[in-house]
Automatic annotation (TrEMBL):
UniProt record similarity statement: Belongs to the SMC family. SMC1 subfamily.
Region (Disordered): 349-368, 377-412
GO biological processes: cell division; sister chromatid cohesion
Keywords linked to the UniProt accession: Cell cycle, Cell division, Chromosome, Coiled coil, Mitosis, Nucleus
Naturally occurring in which organism (per UniProt): Rhipicephalus sanguineus (Brown dog tick)
Protein name: SMC hinge domain-containing protein
Record's compositionally biased regions (Basic and acidic residues): 359-368, 393-412
Amino acid sequence: MGYLKYIEVENFKSYRGLQLIGPLKPFTAIIGPNGSGKSNFMDAISFVLGEKKNCLRVKKLSDLIHGAPIGQPVSNRAHVTAVYCNEDGTETHFTRLVAHSSSEFRIDNEVVSQDEYLNRLEGLRINVKAKNFLVFQGDVETIAMKNPKERTVLFEEISHSLEHKAEYEQLRSEMIKAEEDTQFSYQKKKGIAAEKKEARLEKEEADKYQRLKETLAERQVVSQAFQLYHIQRDLDSLASDMASKTNELQRHVRKKEKIEEEVRDKRKEHGRLQRDMAKIEQQIREADVELNKRKPAFIKAKERTAHMQKKLEAARKSLKAAKKVDETHQGEIAELEKELEEVAEHMQEFEQQLSQESQGRDVSLEDSQVREYHRLKEEAGRQASLHLQNLDSVRREHKSDQDRHDNELRKRNEVQAKLKQKKAELEENVRRVDKLAEQIRSSEASLEELRRQEQEVSQDVAAAKGRVAEINRELEALMNELGDAKVDKHEDSRRRKKAEIVDHFKQLYPGVYDRLVNMCQPIHKKYNVAITKVLGKNMEAIVVDSEKTGRACIKYLKEQMLEAETFLPLDYIDAKPLKERLRSITNPKNVKLLYDVLQYDPPAIKRAVLYATNNALVCETADDASRVAYDLGDNKR
């Protein structure tokens, strides 16, 4: 066995210049006070054996140069050389240099890579990574404080058993697989006895089921054809009804538009009448105001009229009395005039006689006669003057009474004319108010009738729309049924084509098995949903024995321009082995591998089933699934 003979140090940490340490003995102890360089000597050995800078108590490699930590490096490089004495007595020089921040490795002064340098050391059973060759201060205590698992890892690293970990894991997985195969074979052996016992009954039941299925398919075809015939006939009838209802709806819509136009016109007319009525009401109010204003004058005039009528009656009575007096006066006047005429005649006769007598003789009157004559003449003149004065006075009174009578008659006629005019105006206003009220009632009746017609038309339109909506819903339901029937028909056709494709593949390529869904069945129907969810797109996948067979099938699909398919080549898919610990989950209860609730045949498709299930678990409830997914540790899942 070789040994370390010398350590050559140049400008490394506290060692300035070139220093040769050795020869070293099989057991060499270095003692000295603190700061004398013991640890730096250990760092030099660690450095030349390939340790990283974090194990050398520096932040960068340039700090290994003497004086560099205080900013006064004595050189721009440093090196450490280990002289190893081989079993045959030859020496091998291992040198590691540091220049600036880079490191260089040499063997016998020949520059080599780090990997080659470390491999050469490992050839001499010097493994720095094992951490058993260089034991630093505190490492013994650290190893003593490790737990069994950590010490096991350390021993495996020291013994290089970690290099065989991959092989061990592979052999262990093969062992688990062999155990699983054994367990599966045992379970299958147990199940074969029961399956064999039930095989004959299942075959008979399957034959019966197949016959019933064929009969059902034939009757379904007849039933669907019958339904399609009646659906088509109903569609034609509904289309005709919908056309007629559409025409009726359009007619009602036009009628509604016409009525709406009439309603708008009537509303305009109603508005105009309302405006006229408002004007008339305003005029009536103004007339009422005017009437109220004139009412006192009317009452006053009425009172004056009554007073005048009373005065008129009094005047009439006075007139009548005056007429009587006048008649009396007229009689008296007539008598007086008659008397006057008689006196005048007598006077004339007397004068004529006197004249005649005077002409025949000289008439001489006595003084007494003359005085009597003059007295009589004065008396006659006086009485005549008195009668004339009385006559003039009576005439003046008569004229005055006549004037007053005429004036009162004129005033009475004026008052009666005004009263008659006001009565006529009042009657005219009353007639206008009645006429306007009648027009308002007529307009309101017409408006109410139009509103009723509009409501009827709206109800008819709403009913027509409801009927159209109902017909559309019925039509949509029929179209959906027809679509479902077409989809079912298309799906049946698609399934037949897919089955024909698989049958054709089986004839062309012996390595084609079948679709995965056709070769797997759950042990109980309650797992149907879980299986469908997990298998997903792999349910319709075609299982083949090899990648070559799958590529040949894909090429055939492309050449024939058929629908794309998914293939599961047994020699190509990455099927993960079952995790046995998942079968030991007891809380929550009834947690099972999906693989364990599937029955598949033939056994050769096991890898495809493992690939599709992928260690999926089936739980009774969603809460159980949540607990398994989030609460159980990784060591249990």
